Amino acid sequence: MIHIQHLYKTYPGPVHALRDLNLKIARGEFVFLTGPSGAGKTTLFKMISAYDLATSGKIHVAGFDLNDIKASEVPYFRRKIGVVFQDFKLLPNKTVAENVALPLMILKEEKRFIQKQVTDLLEQVGLSDKADQWPETLSGGEQQRIAIARALIHKPDLLIADEPTGNLDPLLSEEIIDLFERVSKQGTTVVIATHDHGLVQRRNKKVLELRQGEVREIASSELIKNISATLAEGL
Amino acid sequence: MNRLHWMTTLVLSCLFTIVFSISLMTKNIQAGLQQWGQPRIWTIDLTEATQNQIESLQKKLQENSEIENVRFVSQKNFVESFQQNWASMGSDLLKDPEVLQFIPDSFEITVKSDQPEQLKSKILSYENVLNVDAGEEWRQRYFQISKSLNQFSIGFLAILSLGAFFIIAYVIQGSVQKRQKEIEVLELVGATAFDIRKPFLIEGASLGFISGSIAMLATYALLLLIKQIIPASPMIANAITSIVYFSWIEVTGILLFTSGLGGLSSYLYVQKMNTGWASSKKIGSNP
Description:
Shape of chain B: elongated
Oligomer: heterodimer
Strand content of chain B: 5-15%
Number of domains of chain B: 2
Strand content of chain A: 25-35%
């Protein structure tokens, strides 16, 4: 699903946000991406979602070569992925239900089908009673769940979520990760960036750690050791 | 519609009312000029001809469907008529045989042809026809005035249309900036460039259509007002009454033009639209 080879992203300075990154994530895999702040998680997500260009290297996602993709193909690539951003990116002039329905409306699905999907998904994220409200009247956690529902509604091949549980209480976080696991079991590849190491440990999934622009796979039990190392480095 | 849209509609309506009024004026002046510029009574001078030849030519002229009336004016008739109308001038002159030889027999015809040049050539090809006076001088003068009027109108209309074009582009620019976040999100969830541009194109075309329609009504109201207020002297009254409004085809064409102008203005702006999410634009030009 995701195949990255020798990926570099260098910002003027030069600042090497990503260096010689190699990564392979198979279809239907569930992966946690961890690492300290500034390690390059968001940069990597931007590359994977065709938000930004790599400086060099190869990047294939959901069957698209993102180095060579035509401008006219980008929307069709984005229809295959679902992205949950840290700042949610919700439309304030649309209701919760309308925000969630957006990807299906773009796909020009039937109104009745859209309504059913929206109702189902809002129920799964616990927002059934908020369907007709404006996002700005809701809490951060509720807005985050709207963004999650919107990223899932069109059943994407790949779900990328940047800190999707950052604003949620522990119980709700577990429920959202349960939802992601269910989605993953249905064939969607899920990549979640998180700082919640407890959550990662409890789930026992593949963990990729990003450090100083480089990525490596670690066992979830190794996380605690790495946190201690990071803290020691900081001290 | 927000306040900016209302204001724009008002400004565009005023602008289009000026444009349509000028077009209507030009159209009516052109129609007047066309009548003036196409003399319908022609004179056909004849070479020396026998009575039979004259009758044969008269028959040919009468049979031509592009000619309404044919009247023979002999040299004698012409002299008599001239002496009646211009008694004080040249009465003696016309007794001079040397002068008389320059006054030929002629036919006076009334034409209804749309292609006077062709008709003239045809008549000139007839036997015993010396010359055809089809009022070229008048026509030339009409063409000159008509051409100048056309050039002035087109130039003026182009300037005003350009103004309307930029006003619409400015409003669309405002709309795009206002909806920047929405555009970003739409791109994020896979909207195509056309999906994103469509509402702006509709907005531009609607602005053009609504303003054009209001201006059409305003121009019509102005015309009615002028017709009611001005008929002071019989001569002006006659000219005013003969003013006609745009035909239905013209109205449709004009509204298509204003809508198209709005749509085009919008398109040229949104075509260059760039947002923080427009990575699609960057892709393909990998540094």
